[in-house]
Specification:
Length: about 300
């Protein structure tokens, strides 16, 4: 018997960095990238294969402890043997270290595949607990936004230390995501913003402004106001530049996307490399923007429709 578990990546639409200071953020599942976990009976002990490791689970290097935990904890919750003769194959199109939630997504896919293999039901709450416990190993003190976003199907509105709220997504528009090809440095960016916040009084106003833009973005998502959402995305990018978390690789693609017809464009995630996003009114516009970004050096581009139908 072979079973499959799937999960998507995630994108932060608005609120990065400001969320650290009590302001809201909006994150959304990003189905253009995904992880597939396949479980089958094979060998004499529990083994796994993926891009970075192939071998027995109990011999996995400590750097992959979060994945090992997701496997072991899932088996524990299932009530299965701790070292069954099965193999877990993991295939991913989510680029690592790009703020797309790859560590949470792999835990989701693995848990879903294992529960399916043992024919056990997996409630949303139990899946979240498995993923969040794995995220604690990967990131120390995760907010829970990655675990919530990649286990669900709707965008989420998140404020630190408050319940995460779903957002009703009804936007007749397309999101283009482009990878600069440069690994982001979230920790460095957060540290530098903290220094600015402590030593420059105007930074608190910028952070508050980013929060206000995120509140407005939530309303625009719900009420299908793509042009207005694009405007607040552009304004947010300006504040993120002031906070020094954008860089030349991001700025160049953001400017190009706007020149090619994007309603708005900004970085997504921690910045200092990583990915940028652009909002397009039509699929044709989205394709044109994506092609231009790829021609300008983006290592990968993706397009996702933000309305109800899936394309």
């Amino acid at each position: 018997m072979v079973t499959i578990g799937r999960s998507t990546g995630k994108i932060i639409l608005m609120g990065e960095h400001a969320v650290v200071y009590g302001q809201p953020a909006i994150a959304m599942p990003f189905s253009a990238v995904q992880i597939i976990a396949e479980v089958r009976k094979e060998g004499h002990a529990l083994s796994v294969s993926c891009d970075f490791y192939r071998g027995l689970v109990h011999e996995m290097p400590k750097i992959w402890e979060s994945l090992k935990h997701a496997i072991r904890f899932s088996l524990y919750r299932i009530g299965a043997p701790t070292d069954p003769a099965i193999h877990i194959e993991i295939r991913s199109t989510i680029p690592a270290e790009r703020g797309m939630g790859s560590s949470a997504a792999v835990a989701v896919a693995v848990a879903r595949a294992l529960f399916s293999f043992y024919e056990k039901p997996l409630a949303d709450e139990e899946l979240w607990e498995i993923v969040q416990s794995s995220e604690k190993i990967a990131h120390g003190n995760p907010s829970g936004i990655d675990a919530t976003t990649v286990t669900g199907t709707s965008p989420v509105f998140f404020i630190k230390n408050q319940p995460i709220e779903p957002v009703a997504l009804s936007l007749d528009a397309y999101l283009v995501v482009a990878d600069t090809g440069k690994t982001g440095n979230t920790l460095e960016a957060i540290t530098d913003v903290a220094f600015l916040y402590q030593h420059h009084s105007e930074v608190e106003n910028w952070v508050r402004a980013l929060g206000d833009l995120t509140y407005r973005a939530r309303d625009y998502l719900v009420h299908n106001q793509a042009e207005l959402l694009g405007q607040v995305m552009n304004q947010a990018q300006g504040y993120l530049q002031e906070l020094t978390v954008s860089d030349d690789s991001l700025d160049r693609l953001v400017v190009l996307a706007r020149e090619k017809g994007a309603l708005g464009a900004k970085l997504t995630g921690g910045g200092r490399g990583g990915c940028m996003i652009a909002l397009a009114k039509t699929r044709e516009d989205a394709k044109k923007i994506a092609q231009s970004l790829a021609g300008a050096g983006a290592s990968q581009t993706w397009i996702q429709y933000l309305g109800e139908r899936h394309e």
